[in-house]
Amino acid sequence: MKFLFPLVVLGVCVSAWGAAPEVSALRAEDVKKGVAVAGVGPDFLWAVEAGSRPVLYVDGRALGPMKKAGGTWTFRGKLQTGTSHSFYYMVEGKKFGGLTDIPAFGPDSYAQPGVPQGKLSAKMLHESKLYPGMKSEYWVYVPAQYDAAKPAALMIWQDGHYHVERDGAAQVPPTGQPPSRLQNVIDNLTHRKEIPVAVYLLIDPGTTGDKAMRSIQYDTVSDLYPRFLRDEILPEIYAKYNVRRDAYSHAIAGNSSGGICAFNAAWYMPELFSRVLMRIPSFTSIQWKPGELDGGNIYPFRVRKEAKRNLRVWMQDGSEDLEQPTGSWPLQSLQMANSLKMREYDFHLTYGTGTHNHSQSNSEMPAALAWLWRGYDAGKSDQVFEMDAAEKAKPLFRVKIYNREQAW
Description:
With 408 residues, the chain is α+β, with helices and mostly antiparallel strands. It contains ten helices and 21 strands.
C-alpha cells in the first residue's frame, strides 16, 4: 500500500499526533457526498452515507469491510506515510464520491516535543529596478539554531506565501492545496542535524500595478529572474543575516511555474545555486514566443545538448498532472528526468498518481530536503555532484498507456 498519513482532508484539521477523529467531527454534507476523510498518524477514518454496503478503494485497492453505524458507513485503516493518495467508493456497482491528492504527512511535518521552533519575519516589500515598477513581498524563516556569528546556508522558495502558515489551517481544502508544514520540517530536520542551519527566503512573485508578474518572472527562460535574485533580493538578505555566498550552500525550490523557475535560476547561475527542488514543474511553452524567446519546453533538450552544470536536483510529478495547449506536465517531467539521467546528473524523481497539486510534494518534503542536503559539510565550499550508483544502475523511464484500450 502506498504511504498515507494526513492531518486533514475535509472538515477536520489536526495538528498533533493522536487517534483519527470520530465521525461526529466530520462535516455532514461531506459524509453525504462521499468526500469525508480524516486521519492522524497512520490512523485514518472514512465515512459515507449509502443505502447498501459500499466498497472503499484507496489507491485502486479495495479496503474493508465498512461498518454501519446508523445511516453512516465507516472504515478505519492504517496506512503508511510520505506521499499523496486517492480514494472512491463503489456502491451497487457504481463509482461514488472520493477525492484525489490527499496529503499523507509523517511525524517530521508536525511540531515535535523538545524541538525548538524558528521564527518567521514580518512581511517585507521590495521594489524592483530590473522589473520596473514591480513590487514583491517576502518573508524570512530562521531556525532556532541560527547563530549570527556563524554563516548559514540559504534556501529560496518561490510562491513564499504558501509556507508562512506553520500548520496550514488556512490552506486545506476546499482551496485545493494542502498545508505546506515547511516550518515544522525545517525545525525537526535542523534539530537532528539532517540538514544544515539555513536562512529560508520565502518570496512571492511581484505585481506591477494591477498586473500579476508570476508567469513572466517564473516561466520566462532567461537570466532575468536569477539576476533579480542575485542583484536585488539577496543583497537585502546578506545585509540582515550572516549567509554563505557559495553555491554549495545555496538551494532553490518551487512548485509548478515556481519549479521551472528554480531550475532556470540554477541553470543560468550554477555559481549561485547548486541544489534544486522542483515540484510539479512547468517545463512547458507558457512563455514561448516563436522566433523571439524559448519556452520551458526546451529544457529537456538543453540538458541533453548543453554543457553540464554542477547541480543536485530533486523533482516530483504525478501521472494526472496537467494537459494543456502549452504542453504536457507529466510527459515533460519524464523527459526531463531522462535527460538528467542521460547526462548523469545527481537527481531523484518521485512520480505518483497525483494531479497539479502540492499534496505529494508537501508530504514527501522531509525526505526531499534531507536528500537535497545529504552529506553537507560546513567546512567545504564546493562539491562535484555525481549520480548515485543505485540510480546509475536503473533504466531510463518509460511510459505506458493505461487509461484506454489499445487498438492493435
